[in-house]
Amino acid sequence: MGRPRIERRHGAHRRAFWGAACAAAIFAAPGLHRATAGTLPGIGRRETAGDSLGVNKAEYQGWKTYHTYCDRCHGGDAMGSTMAPNLRRSVGPEGSITHDVFLQRVTDGVADKGMPAWKGVLSPEQMEAIWAYVRARSGGRLAPGRPHLASGAKTDSGS
Ligand code: HEC
User: Fold this and answer.
1) The whole model's pTM is what?
2) Among 4, 41, 56, 102, which residue's beta carbon has the most beta carbons within 10 A?
């Protein structure tokens, strides 16, 4: 709003002054976009692509399904609990749960250890979506909290 456009500069300027100006421009530019998005009516939450709660459709569905069926044991935000393992670790580099093993565990459960079988309750698509959500959480790209569809993952700016 009346603020001068800040030009991005790349490469050519070697002196420290221009280095600092360059960094400032790079950090300021997304901030300006975000400020603009924040002025849209009816949007309480940032809608900017690339923020840490922005997800694609599969991840969003996965979050909803996880929230309904899994978090009472595996913990809110897939953080783990005293009842069940931290799935972020299970599917990450330190864990042993590959994509195929994940689907098998979710489908068949681990009856003698208290992990229910979800076959007949969840569709294969829902299981894949939970995988996508847990992987996004595991990699650290998705912050804890309620995610929202990133702009570009939907066709309009409505609800
Ligand atoms: C009633 C509690 C409970 C619920 C609800 C539950 N789980 Fe589990 N889950 C467990 C327990 C306990 C284990 C550990 C089993 C073992 O020791 O092998 C487990 C293990 C797993 C594993 C293997 C992790 C590992 O590192 O061995 C995956 C994957 C998993 N659960 C996914 C899910 C998903 C996805 C949901 C929701 C659809 C879900 N679970 C719901 C209790 C639960």
Assistant:
1) 0.73
2) 102
Whether 60 and 137 share a structural domain: yes
Cβ–Cβ < 8 Å for 134, 91 = yes
CATH number at residue 137: 1.10.760.10
What's the pLDDT tens digit per position in 115-154? 999 999 999 999 999 999 999 999 989 999 999 998 777 5
Domain region containing 96: 54-149
> How far does the centroid of ligand 1 lie from the alpha carbon of residue 102, in Å?
9
Pocket residues: Cβ below 6 A from ligand 1: 69-70, 72-74, 83-85, 87, 90, 95, 97, 102, 105-106, 110, 113-116, 118, 130
How many Cβ atoms from other residues are within 10 Å of residue 105's Cβ? 17
Count of domains forming the chain: 2
Q: Is 137 exposed, middle or buried (0-12, 13-18, 19+ CB in 10 A)?
A: buried
Name the residue of 59, 69, 71, 74 whose CB sits within 8 Å of the most ligand 1 atoms, as the mutation to test its pocket: 74
